[in-house]
What does this fold into?
Amino acid sequence: MVAEGARRYFQSRREMVDAFVDRHFSFSGSLSMHRKAIGWDMLKAPANIALAVPQLAAKLAAAGAKAVGADRVADCLGTRKLVFDTEVGNEIEWLIITELLQLPFRQGDCVSHRDALADAILSAPELQEPLHEALGTIGRKGDDPVFRERLEETLETYAGTRVAAAEIATSLMTLGAGAVTVH
It folds into this structure.
């Protein structure tokens, strides 16, 4: 059920790509997005281009250090961020994660709680009856403080794993966008 829900989710995201690209990366969309570049971004962007090679070298050195067992050196090199965050980069990251992927994400004071992946998984017809039963059970035990505490702990654990998954997705998307920019 989870694999099928994930398949439906990714198919729905693929169907949204063309419209998303047209909306944000057409001439007018790009012009609108790059208004955010006025200011410090005008200095950060050229600096990032100059720092791209040293950043890549640090990542490759970290991989080499890890391969030979120098984990502390690998961690030190691998966690170094030489490039600067830009407003345009942050906007692209926000749009990809919250509008295209529709995943929970926090960026500064901005928060999006939409979770299209969870929606796709939970919308499986074979899950509807068990979900209604579980929700009925929760409703009947809603006043039980022990049950509420266990439920809150479980939901906090789930939320933590979702945030971690969103962070991984964000990192991969940022890495991909950076690779495209460098090329």
